[in-house]
Amino acid sequence: xxxxxxxxxxxxxxxxxxxxxxxxxxxxxxxxxxxxxxxxxxxxxxxxxxxxxxxxxxxxxxxxxxxxxxxxxxxxxxxxxxxxxxxxxxxxxxxxxxxxxxxxxxxxxxxxxxxxxxxxxxxxxxxxxxxxxxxxxxxxxxxxxxxxxxxxxxxxxxxxxxxxxxxxxxxxxxxxxxxxxxxxxxxxxxxxxxxxxxxxxxxxxxxxxxxxxxxxxxxxxxxxxxxxxxxxxxxxxxxxxxxxxxxxxxxxxxxxxxxxxxxxxxxxxxxxxxxxxxxxxxxxxxxxxxxxxxxxxxxxxxxxxxxxxxxxxxxxxxxxxxxxxxxxxxxxxxxxxxxxxxxxxxxxxxxxxxxxxxxxxxxxxxxxxxxxxxxxxxxxxxxxxxxxxxxxxxxxxxxxxxxxxxxxxxxxxxxxxxxxxxxxxxxxxxxxxxxxxxxxxxxxxxxxxxxxxxxxxxxxxxxxxxxxxxxxxxxxxxxxxxxxxxxxxxxxxxxxxxxxxxxxxxxxxxxxxxxxxxxxxxxxxxxxxxxxxxxxxxxxxxxxxxxxxxxxxxxxxxxxxxxxxxxxxxxxxxxxxxxxxxxxxxxxxxxxxxxxxxxxxxxxxxxxxxxxxxxxxxxxxxxxxxxxxxxxxxxxxxxxxxxxxxxxxxxxxxxxxxxxxxxxxxxxxxxxxxxxxxxxxxxxxxxxxxxxxxxxxxxxxxxxxxxxxxxxxxxxxxxxxxxxxxxxxxxxxxxxxxxxxxxxxxxxxxxxxxxxxxxxxxxxxxxxxxxxxxxxxxxxxxxxxxxxxxxxxxxxxxxxxxxxxxxxxxxxxxxxxxxxxxxxxxxxxxxxxxxxxxxxxxxxxxxxxxxxxxxxxxxxxxxxxxxxxxxxxxxxxxxxxxxxxxxxxxxxxxxxxxxxxxxxxxxxxxxxxxxxxxxxxxxxxxxxxxxxxxxxxxxxxxxxxxxxxxxxxxxxxxxxxxxxxxxxxxxxxxxxxxxxxxxxxxxxxxxxxxxxxxxxxxxxxxxxxxxxxxxxxxxxxxxxxxxxxxxxxxxxxxxxxxxxxxxxxxxxxxxxxxxxxxxxxxxxxxxxxxxxxxxxxxxxxxxxxxxxxxxxxxxxxxxxxxxxxxxxxxxxxxxxxxxxxxxxxxxxxxxxxxxxxxxxxxxxxxxxxxxxxxxxxxxxxxxxxxxxxxxxxxxxxxxxxxxxxxxxxxxxxxxxxxxxxxxxxxxxxxxxxxxxxxxxxxxxxxxxxxxxxxxxxxxxxxxxxxxxxxxxxxxxxxxxxxxxxxxxxxxxxxxxxxxxxxxxxxxxxxxxxxxxxxxxxxxxxxxxxxxxxxxxxxxxxxxxxxxxxxxxxxxxxxxxxxxxxxxxxxxxxxxxxxxxxxxxxxxxxxxxxxxxxxxxxxxxxxxxxxxxxxxxxxxxxxxxxxxxxxxxxxxxxxxxxxxxxxxxxxxxxxxxxxxxxxxxxxxxxxxxxxxxxxxxxxxxxxxxxxxxxxx
Length: 1479
Known about the structure:
Structural class: alpha+beta
Shape: rod-shaped
C-alpha cells in the first residue's frame, strides 16, 4: 500500500473514538452561528486531547489514556439506512471526496527504482515510520538526511476517513454509539435552567421513547453534561457567572461548564490574523451540490457508474460515459467497437473543467470565514472545555460503567455454561430468533435483545477498547466471540473477531501475534454470510494497514484484491491501487504486477467517473509497459490515456497518446486500428479548432525524409509519332553510382572542349535529380519558369487505408538580394511563405511560386507510396521547401452506407496539418572529431537557388534503329528544338561510343536529301556509277585527316548559324554504324549547350540520351600481306619498290535469324598514308562476290606504295583512299559516312592499343636492353611496316515482313605488319593464367635479338630463263647467267654479305646429278642505301640436264652501324627452279 501520513496505531485508534452527541438551544445555536459554524463543528478541531488521561480498571490498576480523540456530532434523528450498503448520497459524498483530492501538480517528482524500472510518482510526503522502507532497493530523488520521499495517495486516506465517519451505527457493536450528550444553552436565555431541563427531557425522549431508531446510545443512563455558552460580545458576564454557580449547585461541578467565546471585536480584525483550523474538517460536508447529494432517489448503481458529467464538468449535465457500457466486459477490453463514437458525443459539452470548484477553500466558502468572532484565547477556552469534559465527565463515566459490567459478569462466572443459558431463558434473557433455528447460517444468524448477557460482554469490551485498555478488551472480545459462535450469531461473531484482532495488534509490547485469520474470517462472514460489504470493507481497510505495517505486503495485496467487486467501482479502484502499491513495496518489487493492478484500478476509476485518477493510474502503469515490447498493452494504455486526457480537456496529451498508438509498429487488427484512427482524428480536430495560427504536425503517414528526391526541369515528352525523344533523366530511373560517374566524365570532356581543353576549377557536374546518394552540400540551382518536382515517400504503418487530400508543398521564398538564412532580421521582411494560404485552403502567392495541389492521394494498408509534388517558381531568389501540407482522413473501406449523415461524419474526420521535411546530411568522417562524435553534414537538396531563365533543348530522333548488323551503316535524323524563351548556342555532343555515329563534316558531307521519306531507298553512301573493267586500277583520292577528326571524342553539332533561337528547331542527318562486337550495347549521348547570354550562374546545360542497340553478326574479314616476289623493274606500273600482295578472307558468320539472305561484297577500299590497293588480281574475274550463310571467299589484291605528296612542306597528314569496286557503282570511301567511320574506327582502335597491351606487358629485360637494340627494333619495324587499312563494303539482302530490304555496311581491317594476319573481329581476351609466386629473383634472360624481324631487311629476287637448252655432248659445262636483285626494305643503310658457297656436307647434296655450282666471285660484301635496289649478275654452272633449285645464295644483312653479332640470314624466297635440257 502507499505510504500514509498517520502511523498504523494512530489510524486504528482514530477509527474508533468515543462518540458524544450535542443538543443545542436555539439561542446557543445563534451564538455559535456568528462564526459560521454550529456547536459540533466549533468543537471539531479541538477534539484531540493534548495531555494524558487516566482511568482505573476493575482490578484498580491505573491505565494511561494517550492521544485520545473524541467525536462530537449533532443529534440527527432522521432514519439512516442500514449499514449493509451506502445510500446514494453517501456514495456521492465519497466520490466527491476522492475527486477533490488530486495529486499536486508540479510537486517534487519522486522516482522509485525497482529492478530495471524507474517509476516516477509525482506526489510526495514526509515519510512516517515505516519498517519496510529500508527494504526498498533504491530511491532516486532528492534524498537528504532528514527527508525521505515516497509515494502517497491522499485521496485514499481521505476516502478511508470519510468512509469510517459516514458508517451508520450498527446493533451488533457499540463503538459508534453515543456515550454522552452535551446540552448547550446560551447565557442570554431568560431562564437557562429551564432550557437545560427541556434539553434533558428531549434527550431522554429520544433515547427511551422507542420512536427513534437513530441515534443509537451506548448505555441506558447516558452521561449528560451541561454547557452554558456565554457570548462575550453581548456582555452580561456577571449574570453568566451567577447562572454557572447555580448550575454547579444543581449538577455538580463535574457535570457542567461555562464556555466563554466570541471575544473578538471587529476593530481588532485588521491587526491580527487568526488561523482557521475548521476548513480542513468542514469541506467534506459542505460540498456545493449538497442538494444533489441529498437526493436519495437516485439509484445507487447509476450514481456509482455515471457520475462522470456532473463530476467532470460543473454543469449538471448527465452524460453516459462510453467506457462503462457493460460491467460484464473484460477490464482490459478496448471497447471501441461498442462505443467508438463516445468521444464525438462529448463535443456538445463544454470540456473546460472548473478546477477552482475542487479546492477546499472555495468549497468551504473562502478562507477566514469560520471563527471570525473568536480570538486565540477563545480557541484555548474551547480546548480547555474539551479537556475538562473528557477528564472530569467522560472518562469517569466510562470507568464507572466498566466496573458495573465487570461486576455483572464476575457474579455469573461460577455458574456452569448450560445453567447460565437456562437462567437466561427463564429470566427473559433469551434470544429472539430472527429466523428458525433450523437455519443457523442465515444472513446474520440471530438478533439479541439489548439486555442479552453476550451483548454486555461486547459492551464492556468496546468501552475498554475506547479507553485504550486493549488487554481487557481482547479477553472480552475473545469471550464474546465464543458465545456468538456457539449461538451461530454470525454478524456478532464477525464483529467480535474483527475487534479481537485489532485489540491484539494494539496491545503494548505485543504479547501475542496479530491474528490475521480472525480478520479473514470476519471479512468472509461479513461479505458472504451477512452480505454486508460496508463492514467487510472496514475490516479489510484495517487489516491491510496492519499487515502493511508488518511488511506482509503479499497478504495485504491479496486481501485488498479480494475486496474488489462489481457493486462499487470506486471502492474497487481504490483498493486495486493500494494492492498495486503493495506489490511495488515488496522486498523484491513486483513491478509488472504493480502495473497490471494499476491498469485495473484505472479502469475502475474510469467506470466510477473519476477520470483524473484513471488517467493518473494509466500513466503510472505506462512507465512499466513502455518500450518493452508489450505493444498491445501499450496500445490499450495509450488509447485510454488519450480518451481520458481528451475528456479532461488535455487535448495535447491526448494527441501525444494517440500518436504513440498510430506510429508504433502496431499489432492490432485492422478494425481496431481504424477505430483508433477515427478517435485520433476527432481529438486532433478539436485541438486544431483551438489553434488557427499554425498548422499542427501530423504523425501519419510516415515520411521517409532521406528518401526524398528533387527533380529540376520539365518532364519530357518521350515520343511523338515517329519521333523518339531523348531519354534524359526522369524520376523513374534508379540512381546508379557508376552511371553518374560516367555522365560526369562525359560532361567534363564537353566542358573542357568548350573551354579550350581546360576544365574550370569551379566546374560542378549537372545534377538534375537529387537524392540521398548525390552530393547535396551546395545549394542546387533551379531555373525560373521551370518546374521543381519533389518526390516524397509516404508510408502507412497501419492496416487501414489513409486518404490524403489537397496535398501540396509548403515553402518559404526569399527574394534575390536578401540573405538566405531565415533567422536574420533583414531577410525576415523579404521571406514569403505559403503557409497562411494553405491553412485556409486558398491558393495564393502565384506570382512568386505556383504550387500544384494533388486533390486525392490514397495510401493502402501498410503501403509505401511516392507522391510527386510540383512547384513552378516565377522569380529569382532562394527557395526553401519546408514540408508538406495535407488533409488527413481515414479512407472509407467501403462498408459505410452512402448516406448524408455518413458523409458528414467523414467530413468531420478530416484534419488539415503538415509534416516538415527534415533531411539529415551524410555522416561526417574526415577529422578525428568527426570520427569520435556523430556529426552530420549539410543536405541542401530542398533549398534551391532560383536563377534567371535559361535555354532548354529538346532532342528528337527519327528513324533511329534498335537493331543493327555489325558494321551496318544506317542513316537517321535528329531534331533539335529550343523550347525556352532564350537562344542557345555551342551545341556539342559527347558519347561513350564516339565510333557509333557521325554528323559528317561540312567539307565531306554529301548532299543527300534531308527529308527522311525521300531517302528511304537511297544508299547512305555517296556513290558514282562506274563500269568495272577486268584488271582496272583503283581510283584514288587524297584526304586530310583533320577534315574528319574531332578532338577528344567531342563533336560539335553543325547547325546553321550555330545558334537556335527561342522556339526554333532544326533537323540534321545522323549516320550510325553497328558496333563491331555482337550483343546489346548501351550507348550514351550527352548533348551540351550554352545560353547566348554570358555571366549567368548556370554556365551550361546538358541533356542525356541513352540507347540500346542490339548488334548481330555480319561478316568476318581476315587480311594478310606478303611481299610480292616479282622483281621491281618488271612491274612497270609500280614506280617505287616492289609491291605487296594482300589477301582478304571474308566469311559470312551471320546466323540467319535476322532474316539475312546473302551478303554481296561490292567494294574493297584502302586508306593509308603510305600504301594503297592497286588492283584486284583474283584469278576468276567474276563480278561482286556473293556469300550465303557460312560461306567464305578469298580476294587477292596487289598493293603499292603511294606517290609522294606534293605538299610535303605542310605538316598535314594526308590519307590516300583507293577504291576497288567489284560491282557497277563506286562508293566514294573518302566522303561522309565511310570516311568518318573509318577515322573513328582507327581512333578507337589506337586508343585501345595504347590503353590495352602496353599496360600489361612487363619486361624483366628492360634494364639490360642497350640503346643499339632499340634502334634495331625501330629499323626493323619500319622495314616491315605496312600500315594499310582495308575497308570492305558490303550489301546484305534481308527479307522482313515479305519485303526485301537492302542493308549496307563496312568492316575495317588494319594491316600493320607484313606477314601478320589481321581480323575485323577483336579477339576475345583470354583470362590470364595464375602464376606461382616466386620468392627468389630469377636470373634475367639474355637479350634475344629480334632475328625474325631482322631477317626481312633485304628482299631478294633471282631472274633467269625458265628453261635452258645446252648441248652437253659438245660442252660438258653449262654456264647460265642469273641476275640477283637485292632490295633494301628498310629506311637505313644496310651492310649485305652474299655467300654463294655451298656449305652442305650431307652426302645427298654431293650427288652429282642434283648439284650445280656458282662460278666466278662467290662472296660479295655490299652496302645498300635506304630503299635501294641493286642487281648482281651471277653465273651458275651445271654438269648435266635436270631440274635445279637456284635459290641457294645465302644473304646476310645488318644495319650499317651495328656490330657483327647483329648479322642475320635473310629469308629466302620461294624455290627458283630452272630446267636444263640436253640439246
